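The aim of this short unit is practical: by the end, you should be able to scan a pair of folded records and say something sensible about each. We start with the first protein, listed as its amino acid sequence and then its structure tokens.
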Amino acid sequence: MEWSPHNLDYKERLSISIMEVFFDISSLVILNGVFYGFGMSVLILFLNVKTIHKFQSGIMLTIYLILFYTIIIYLPFMLAGEIVYLTLIPNMLWIAELTVTLTLLILSINIFIHLKFYRSINAFSVTGLMYGFDGFVFMMSISIPIMGFSGMMNSKLLLISVGLIMLVSAITWGVLLIFDFGHPKKRISLNETLNLKRNYKKKGYMFAWFGIDSGTWDIMKRMVSQGRLPNIAALMKNGCYGRLQTVTPTYSPVLWTSKATGKTPEQHRIRNFVIYNIKGIGEKVEVMGHDPILNITIDKLAKFGFIKRRPVGSQDRKSLSVWNILSKVGLKIGVFSWFVTDPIEKINGVMVPEFYYLLRSEKGSSSEIYPPHVKDDVQKIKSEIQKRSKSLKGDEEVKNRFHIHGEITSSDLRKLKILKSFYFQDILRLKIAEYFLSRFSFDMIMLYFHGIDAVQHRFWDNYKNGNGGKIFQDVIRQYYEFIDEVLGDLLSRMPKKKSVFITSDHGHENVGKIKNIVDTILKKDKISGSHSNAPDGIFITSGYGVKKGVRVKNISIYDIVPTILPIWNLPVGRDMEGDPRIEIYDRNITSVKHINSYEGLMSVDIGRENDLTEDEEIFNRLRDLGYIDS
């Protein structure tokens, strides 16, 4: 008897139908996953064109990303598609068009966010090439006879498509690497020099730049009007202030490096908290944090050793910072706790890098300081603060300082522990700065405080909505008062002839509702405050040479260094992104000189590198602030 599907019973026909749907949708899902993985591999290779040099590394990264997106993202699509097909029995073309649309939509959003941060017209060209190729293959796929995907797994089309995608990915990466697309060329004149023998010092003058992470006008102005921040109020009254524009994503290492260099992340190459080392690649890889699924997966894989992470370091920065420039012209600089200063740089002055301030459980520190002959004295200060932070008196100090009274529940203990940790780190920053101000004569100091950012991440809901009762309701306000007292102490130790900059990297606001819901569903440690939407930060300047009562408008994080250099009559680099805002100065500074670039005119001497791979204390700090999940 001749075979016919009509001769099969219901179960046999259903079995064949399920198999056909499985192969059809599997083919579609694999193609979509490959397309998305290819798109992301082109983008990530584009971002890593300066660090990934081996052809094998580029191919391996592409394969990893294609596998990741196919399995993690599009496998659920496949299962959902089969259920929809078997339940509703729609036309297969409808499913194809839906998944293609979703793929291109998600990819477009992801790439748009990346390119908004890394501005380069060449990146748009690469994206256009990728979309054109994807569209061509999609058109081939959906033009199969009977307007479906039946038998596609048995055809050569899928294999040919995958092969072509891999080939185009490799060629694109190679072209980016060879021609260095997307990275601005330094505009250095071969005969341009800087007079390093000239005396740039100002007798009896000192400049201080205080960084307050996440300092927020919405809170500060209210507290100033209430008389709770007397030192900041005096600086505002006698100087200039305004809202400081920032950029996204609001990652502290990125923003504080941009502020210290006057350069974009595309120029200085610091673009995240961590650098990844992935098995089979052998070169460091930067993966941006815009893709939460990729980020979470990477953090999970790090637990099993497949991926190793280390914090970004000064060896990763590709632009000169303001301390390099001022140090090379003979000015004495003190740099305390600034982001991306570990390993230390040998400057004309003092550098105590960011990770030195972690109050580690073990004796000593993984960080070196410069100059090395003061390390023993500084270590004594650190040991005293460590003992103080771990004692019962330390607990009482924190509770009294931040008005925490009453019964503390088990769920509150973690928040209290984080508050205590960041408070004593800021105390250590203060004590180390006091030590050096009493023994050294500086032309400029740069000092960063982290605590306000930490408490706003953790206690924003207590401050804004009164959630959690009154026990933590005044923590944020008290922390601003603490920083105001610290500033007053430090300013009293500086010479009378001084000027001050106070900046934050961004402001702060409520965490997004969607993230709140997701954190609740996933039972994650909740963060109530956020700065992901890049709220404006603070800018305050006061003191010698600064006008009084000027409201500064449209100043950005890129403008700070170009505004500092003219203080010492130093030229501003034309390759710096920002502009000098000399309207804040009186008659002492009326014009600005320019130089094509400082890059190439001076070098950076970096000290011994420490192995901070998977450093538990550093990654604990990132977890406490919600920047990584594991």
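Turning to the second protein, read its sequence before its tokens, just as you did above.
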Amino acid sequence: MEVVNELIFGGGALLLVAILASVISNRVGAPLLVVFLALGMLAGEDGPGGIFFNDFGLSYLFGSLALAIILFDGGLRTPLSSIKVGWGPAAVLATVGVVVTAALTGLVAYLVLDVAPLAAFLLGAIVASTDAAAVFLLLHQRGMALRRRVQTTLEVESGINDPMAIFLTLTLVELLAAGGGTSIGWDVLETFGRQLGFGVLVGTGGGFALAWLVNRLEMAPGLYPVFVVAGALVVFGGTQQLQGSGFLAVYLAGIIAGNRRLRANQLIRRFHDGIAWVSQIVMFVMLGLLVTPTRLLPDLVPAGLIALGLILLARPFAVAVCLFPFRFTREERLFIAWVGLRGAVPIFLAIIPVLQGIPNSIDYFNLAFLVVLGSLLLQGWTVPWLARRLGIEVPSRPEPGSGKSDFELPSGFDRELIGYRVAETSPVAYKPLDAVKLPPRTRLVAVLRRNVVVPQHMVRQLKPNDYLLTFAPPEQVHLLDKQLLPRNNAKRRRPEVALGDFAFAGGTSMAALADAYDLPVTRQDREKTIDEFLRERMDEDLSVGDEFPLGDVEFVIRELSAEGEIQQVGIWLEPEEPHLLPTWLPRALGGGYRAFRGAGRRVAVLRRPWPRATLSRKPALPAPEPSSRKKE
């Protein structure tokens, strides 16, 4: 009994310390998952805690449960409209990209370690996949928002690339256990097809069934989120029983359930947010406990070389190959290559050779742990800086759930009744009510001000602390959140992301801009608005932060309507190419650097699709709105 009490006290204390440490890490900008791993190591046998823990089977069990909950939560908060933007590149990265990364990392491991090629390839397969927990947490931890197609590609890739990594790991473990043979026949393709097929089928069916049951069953409000968690674990475990990919299934189930109307929707999402945090903390602290730091010392140098090979060679090459058919900019490719974060999944996969009794399997675990640690330290610490350096970051999105209340309606309704409190940082604050364009099929029911319902025709301007009551279809809620929820200002010390030197309405005529900035615009294009001109030349799925060079200026999208129309654009008068070189290097290289940069600009000019034209001067351009901050 005394031992049980000690375990309860120690577990609760460790969880409490981890949560408090997360607050400190946010203040200093440290990667949060590294903090959780470090806490586990400090509590372990080599640290002050002195806890001896080496149960790989129990770690595999808890790791599976935690990853299932994290993936389901990630799918639950992913809008279907975002999935459509990044599904293609993410799918290629999750399959071909994992194989290419595993092969190149295995080659580096073969050159660094004194092991057989098959063993080196196994190590490459273990660390080949990006980690959903690491990517989701890093992109949301600091209130950072990225261009939509970049963020969606990273999130979806990390959610669906586990099946390929698990398939490669299990196949190579079987080959090593069989004595190092080079082939096990068609069983390999059959296994992969079964994992992928059952993962998609059970995950899709499970997501629809879960949403249907939540909306049909009458139960206490507090039981709905528990029911959803239980359903997600049933989907995961059932798919695993069928020898499919439970990780793919639970992620797809989360996407499908999260994009349908759910009874007690807000309660379910808040509960899952909390339980996903607990899962991440428990998983990473447990993996930190599992490792023995003193046994890692002999592997520091080879693991460091393998990590550098993975980060600087394998991942960038895989991204370059996989994203070649897609319309990503150079900066977006570079950022996606760098945010190939490794986390719990590689450590989790490194447990498989230990459980299967592969010779020297503990070496795989130690090497994988060090590679993950190096990835989190090097990449995790630099992602916010690189996002701003490359111009990938956009103004932060509203904080989910902040200033928002859900009201329960009978399950037959296909609308949600939602209340929003207008804050100082809400996009609609101080705007005239008739200037607020709500998403399609959304209705403003009432405006409450100082506990009084104000008739809408008397509301000239929305003010902070006004309360808006709205009806909205479930698929439009995320657009409504974007319009009405306050911006995320948790990190006020971070500089505001600038989107142009000046801002213009999307309805401004191209003729006015062409005359003011001597832009190469044809006679037909002069009659178009900025919105029409840019939407004809850019991708169908636009997002805030997308850029388009024209002449000596560069357009950048600042604001989109619910229908995807460009409402506001920024203009850089002197656009600069993002660069990663230290500021002293161009000065040191002198004329050689300037000549190289000038040659690049001349090539870029030759590739422009619109020849410069001599345009007659027209009436003066409407006065632009100055940008909130100058370009940094």
